[in-house]
Amino acid sequence: MRVVSLFIELLERQFPIESWEQKLQLRTAKDYAERLAVHVNYLNKKLKESTGKTTTELISDRIIQEAKILLKQTKWNVSEISYALGFEEIAHFSNFFKRKLPLPLWNSVHNLNFANFRLIQANTSAPKYPNFVSLE
Q1: pLDDT: is 12 or 113 the higher one?
Q2: What is the pTM of this model?
Q3: For 92, what's the count of Cα atoms within 13 Å in the CB-facing half-sphere?
């Protein structure tokens, strides 16, 4: 199952994120399939057989894992973390996180981390989001 090991290697090569400017290059099953020169259905089939999860599920799990690490171990604001993980808007990052975590864990992360960040564009080096809304 060479394609499985190559996929995992490609996925892990993107991490850890050491700077918010280090944006993920591969975000979708299609991105990985193209890089591996295989059809996305073939990649999904092999990963599902080997891991029990689809390509998208594995990518999402790894992004969630990295988000938790960044939220706990860096002083980056949510805007910087969401940008580094390939989300163009904070709302997309927040919605993705909510969908992937059980409600009690999401509430814990939200209360401990998101509430502690001041999302003020003028005071951050984070990218400028066109639909950014200050929480002040």
Answers
A1: 12
A2: 0.74
A3: 13
Helix axes 29-36, 40-51, angle to 10 degrees: 100
**Do the beta carbons of residue 114 and residue 75 sit within 8 Å?**
no
The reported pLDDT for the residue numbered 78 is 84
Please state, in angstroms and rounded to a whole number, the distance separating the CA atoms of residues 128 and 9.
32
If 0-12 CB within 10 Å is exposed, 13-18 middle and 19+ buried, where does residue 60 land? middle
Q: What is the pLDDT of residues 7-45, one digit of tens each?
A: 999 999 999 999 888 889 999 999 999 999 999 999 999
Q: Is the distance from CB of 88 to CB of 23 less than 8 angstroms?
A: no
DSSP state of 63: H
